[in-house]
Description:
By secondary structure, the chain is an alpha+beta fold. 48% of the residues lie in helices and 16% in strands. The chain has an eight-stranded mixed beta sheet. The two termini are 44 Å apart.
Amino acid sequence: KISRNSALDLNIFLRQKIEKLKSTVDQIDKIFDSYPLSPEVWSRISKGKMLLKESEVAYKKGQFTQAKVKIADSEMLLTDSYEKATANLKTYFNSYPVWKNWIDRTIRESRQNQSYSIIIDKYSRKCQVYYAGIKKYEYTVELGKNWVGDKRVKGDKATPEGMYKIIKKFGNNKTKYHKALLIDYPNETDREEFRLEIAKGTLPRTAKIGSLIEIHGDGGRGVDWTEGCVALTDSEIDVIFKIAKEGTPVTIVGSMVTLDKILD
């Protein structure tokens, strides 16, 4: 009787552990699916998922001792990786108050000027187009491969963050993409931050600031692939190209919503 009860308790314990770990995997996939974590963290997550699947197979076969070992190893990998990833995300979202200020200013000025404004939300991969303070269009975008954080140097494959404006429009046959809208990156704020980093030694004196950041076509690939630009599908850039003009504001932020809403 004691043996049967112990086996039943272990069965319940393992099932609960497996369900809890599957919930952790769901959270990781939901929050970090397109987030550029380090290769080491992604490797640990992949190994943790594999061990979780193996533990499920062993559990279904009644191999409880083997399942228990694999669950313990999977839990260590997944829990540790989730905590590190969340800590990284929280650090990134320390800039949210600044992003919120930029967003509010952009929408307010759109309303006051009865004009178009563009807001790029990097975390959600959304391009929102406002007119007179009201959202008119929303499209999915693709970014630079290393989009987390602000752009610091030429070639870092990061999409910049800040309040910019369109300074030039390139139609068909004038760009290697379908169409393109060039923004004024680097602006004076970007140049000042770059000079400060050089002075502090956080960037080498040989570093060069980036340029030629555009909103352009040829998107729709489903992955972040640009050198730092914002890519849309050709049909989407057609819409924005038609309504945008030189001087149209383009605000790029890490997120338009708080981290609490993302983690909820």
